[in-house]
Please model this.
Amino acid sequence: MLYKFGGIKAGLCLVPCILFLLLTLFSIPHSIAQTIQTQTPIPGGTINVDTTWSAANSPYTVLGTVTVANGVTLTIEPGVELYWNGSAQYLWLLNGATLVVEGTEANPILFSRNGTGHWGGIYVANGGQATLSHCEIAYGGSSSSYGGLRTDSSLVNVSDCHIHHSAHHGLNLVGAGVSPSFTRVQIENSGGNAVAQSTVDMTPAYNNLSLSGNSQNAIVSPGGIVNRHITLVPPGLMGDQIIPYRFIGSSSVHVANGQALTVTSGVELHFSSPNQYLWVAGGGRLHAAGTAENPAVF
Model:
């Protein structure tokens, strides 16, 4: 590689100047030089064929919203780092699309911003499928409609992931009846709710969540009608306390005719308004299965 400079006036300076130049170049920290050399740009657009983002080409700078089309699988290898450039830029999965994010404890997969501010986040449309393990979703959720991760689909399984510093919600679950699964997920420092549900009438599986520093460290949903059998279990901890289910707004929670709400040992239900009730319609059932040591709390 040739480097142009102003010139050398004294012939005796030629060798020491060249040596100084070489020493200066090779003294650049290796990590900085490596990042500059290996950074791979990804333009925004639609992925129409099965695609793998490899660790060999990481880190990646994503220059726009990336949409995974119906019938297409996007696989992201362990150790990959992805940095989105703008606040209105997302990773979208359409109906029938598949996302495979399977990091390891030693080589997690990172989704984050490029620079300051927030990027859009990951969105899984109804019918989309996503498996995320050992990943980090940082500084997403630029829109309150999405969050760091939003799913409208039941075909989502998230485990051993860390979601933090979302501008709004950490997790956002949308749609009656959806049943995604979240195991050992840590959600921290979200500007909105740690977990936002669009309705009480859904059946997600929460196991060993850890919440801290969010605007609300809770599973938050509006009141409404329970139109299916729902069993609520303790979702995890915030410090040494059980994470509560919190019902906001003015609507009560209604268990419809023929449906059942089961509240297991240790679950806490918090209501935000004195005008809210837990109503059980004729033909509906409420089963509160607490114990002396771990009562169900209303």
